[in-house]
Amino acid sequence: VNDVLGSLSADFASAYSDIGRPSIAPERLIRALLLQAFYSVRSERQLMEQIEFNLLFRWFVGLGMDDPVWDASTFCHNQDRLLEADISALVLNGVIEHRKVRGLLSRDHFSVDGTLIEAWASMKSFRPKGGGAGRNAERDFHGEKRSNETHESTTDADARLYR
Question: Which candidate among 32, 116, 137, 143 keeps its CA 20 to 30 Å from the CA of 78?
Fold first, then answer.
């Protein structure tokens, strides 16, 4: 990440003005976005809270112990600026093409550790296939067996039940 961010300094400079109030350094912003993705932080407010109290997050982003953390709304505005300048695609492509990463990737195979991915579907979203009596129908779920053959998720059609 350090090499890629260093190589994109000119691209960062073109996305930011030399006048006006100081903004969040784009390198720090991208590092914060990486943390948000890696640790499944659901919102910018929660991310700012994590950066405020988590020393690992502060270190990775480049903030010292006494440095103030950005306001969530300021973070969002700067994030939008990076997205408009298509910087995120440059960073991703830079990481993929990096000499240390290139040998780890394959166009033939893609693997994901599913234990680390939170499902959008909870047990409450599984309903009997074929509809049923509606959203507010009287139901007694105690003792009801659910399986992929008899139930489906209303929030994620690809979700499956596993043990």
Answer: 116
Instruction: Please count the residues of the chain.
Output: 163
Residues whose CB is less than 8 angstroms from the CB of residue 116 and which lie 6 or more positions away in sequence, other chains included: none
What is the H or E stretch that residue 153 is in?
strand 151-153
Strands 151-153 and 126-128: antiparallel
Q: What angle do CA 102, 107, 101 make, to 5 degrees?
A: 15
**Chain position carrying tokens 């599913």:** 114
Please state, in angstroms and rounded to a whole number, the distance separating the CA atoms of residues 100 and 1: 11
Output the six-digit token pair for 16.
């930011």
For the whole model, what pTM was predicted? 0.60
**Per-residue model confidence as pLDDT tens digits over 88-107:** 788 888 888 887 777 787 77
